[in-house]
User: Fold this.
Amino acid sequence: MRGKTKKLAKLEENTIFTGRNGELIPISTLFSNNKRYNTFDSFMKKTFNKKVVKIALDIGSTCPNLDGTFSTKGCTFCTGGSGDFAKSGDIVESFIQGVELVSKKWKDCYYMPYFQSYTNTYMSVDRLKSNVDKVINLPNVVGISISTRPDCISDKMLDYLADLSKTTYLIVELGLQSIHDKTLKLINRGHNYSQFLECYSRLEKCGIKVCIHIVDGLINETKEDMLITAKEVARLNPDFLKIHLLYFVNGAIDTLRLQNGEIKPLLKEEYIDILISQLELISPNIAIERLTGDPDKSKLVAPLYATDKRGMLASIDNEFRKRNTYQGRLYNEQ
Assistant:
């Protein structure tokens, strides 16, 4: 395969995985661009025959963990909703601005509006549908991604999402963070793992594509705890996975914990070690949307290496090669 190292090609030549529809797939066809994991970019190019770029948008959502329904404090890593760089205001204007920005880097691609900030199913179906309808038929839009929580999808909302998934390429991004209830309580998440499983099952039965979010480095979690979360994600076998590094920003409860010595950030080497060990457990059929976050440099307290995304990804690639391993290497052994 062009762009592969000889070691990787040799490693993969006799490695076959079973696809989602029962087909046998050589692992060499799942990876590209000299990567040893199944990138979202590669997966979408194979799906649409062109690069697909997500345009992050803020549609004015809130969250039951912030508006007082469950809490006003939010998750301990939160400073008021994810998506520091999501554009707010008129949704069409925001989308166009986002397209203009990414077009400076990528000239010929498709787009996916990404309702990123806060909990985007924590509103009426009519309101969500109104926002979707404004962007779904814009030029070169091939789908939509909606970020939410597992305790915020009503039956009526699920029916709408199921219908939407039949007309466009829909991804529901579902925040899990950890499968450990003790951790979910410590981070003030507001739901337990059973609630997540129930929601995931309902989405899966409707044929809706799901991207699971997990976070590494949460308070009191060991490497083994994080690997157990990865094993469970592998069992669930979602379409997509995002792995975030916990970082500490001004105004977050976790940052106060950091300053009080109750928690410490993962060292760069620790994070990369955990991350690769997790990916070895994850089926190569699962496309990886993210391996680290995009912290706002003006708000970040620690770890400072999180601001160097390009350097982080290069270090991850180098460690994969150093270990001569890849996503899914241990998947069939579980």
User: Anything to note?
Assistant: Residues 216 and 245 are 5 Å apart (CA to CA). The first helix runs from residue 6 to 12. The longest strand covers residues 169-177.
